[in-house]
Amino acid sequence: MSEDQFEQENASAAAYDSADTTNQPHESTANSTWSRMLAGNRRFAEGKPEHPWQDTTTRESLIDRQNPDAAVLSCSDSRVPPEIVFDAGLGDLFTVRTAGQILDDAVIASLEYAVVKLHVSLLVVLGHEGCGAIDMAAHELDDMIAATTDNAAGSLEAADAIDDLDERIAEAESIVLRSVGMSVWQARQAELDAHEDFERVHVAHTIEELVTRSEVIQDALAHDQLMIVGARYQLSTGKVEVLSF
Ligand SMILES: [Zn+2]
């Protein structure tokens, strides 16, 4: 797709008419898509991937159209490619990847395109074990707390003493701290101090922010045209952990 086409289609995505029910996916479609993806992940984790839909016939059948079942927003980490960990093929997943699955306008516009133009019924936000972006945000948050309080440990007590820490994070120069720091800070406030907790809270936080920032996605959710799930990929087992919030 050319950039022009993308801009045009995205402009019409913004003008999405929520009353349009010509291609309304149902919750059962989203659930069965998710079950299929998890079954693919089980095959992958067990070392028995089928590598489906990667043949020449499939490629040729998709020249003029695409009809993916799900959109996936995941980390750019080289160890977490959604098509591989879900054992999926050509045309199955519409993927958007940024370090730490950080949102920006381009990410949101891409996901809106998948919802409005490609009618995906499922959107998966996928974090993962050992996420470098989360690690970086946690360190930068400690540094910010230490620098603000003259407390080398960057402790929770010291952080609590900073009245405007939320604002400082929101206005931080570092994009990673600005985008992921609040997830780490919320987890620490809830006494969830392990990095895997930061990763889980960040998935929840990402979904919350995505819904807040996108009216298109709010509409699709309100009309049962979309289901959003949060998950965390475990590098150590190959399994995708389904998160509940
Ligand atoms: Zn990552």
From TrEMBL:
<feature type="compositionally biased region" description="Basic and acidic residues">
    <location>
        <begin position="43"/>
        <end position="65"/>
    </location>
</feature>
<feature type="binding site">
    <location>
        <position position="128"/>
    </location>
    <ligand>
        <name>Zn(2+)</name>
    </ligand>
</feature>
<comment type="function">
    <text>Catalyzes the reversible hydration of carbon dioxide to form bicarbonate.</text>
</comment>
<dbReference type="Pfam" id="PF00484">
    <property type="entry name" value="Pro_CA"/>
</dbReference>
<protein>
    <recommendedName>
        <fullName>Carbonic anhydrase</fullName>
        <ecNumber>4.2.1.1</ecNumber>
    </recommendedName>
</protein>
<dbReference type="InterPro" id="IPR036874">
    <property type="entry name" value="Carbonic_anhydrase_sf"/>
</dbReference>
<keyword id="KW-0479">Metal-binding</keyword>
<dbReference type="InterPro" id="IPR015892">
    <property type="entry name" value="Carbonic_anhydrase_CS"/>
</dbReference>
<comment type="similarity">
    <text>Belongs to the beta-class carbonic anhydrase family.</text>
</comment>
<feature type="binding site">
    <location>
        <position position="131"/>
    </location>
    <ligand>
        <name>Zn(2+)</name>
    </ligand>
</feature>
<comment type="function">
    <text>Reversible hydration of carbon dioxide.</text>
</comment>
<dbReference type="GO" id="GO:0008270">
    <property type="term" value="F:zinc ion binding"/>
</dbReference>
<feature type="compositionally biased region" description="Polar residues">
    <location>
        <begin position="24"/>
        <end position="35"/>
    </location>
</feature>
<feature type="compositionally biased region" description="Low complexity">
    <location>
        <begin position="10"/>
        <end position="23"/>
    </location>
</feature>
<keyword id="KW-0862">Zinc</keyword>
<feature type="region of interest" description="Disordered">
    <location>
        <begin position="1"/>
        <end position="65"/>
    </location>
</feature>
<dbReference type="GO" id="GO:0004089">
    <property type="term" value="F:carbonate dehydratase activity"/>
</dbReference>
<dbReference type="InterPro" id="IPR001765">
    <property type="entry name" value="Carbonic_anhydrase"/>
</dbReference>
<keyword id="KW-0456">Lyase</keyword>
<feature type="binding site">
    <location>
        <position position="77"/>
    </location>
    <ligand>
        <name>Zn(2+)</name>
    </ligand>
</feature>
<dbReference type="GO" id="GO:0015976">
    <property type="term" value="P:carbon utilization"/>
</dbReference>
<feature type="binding site">
    <location>
        <position position="75"/>
    </location>
    <ligand>
        <name>Zn(2+)</name>
    </ligand>
</feature>
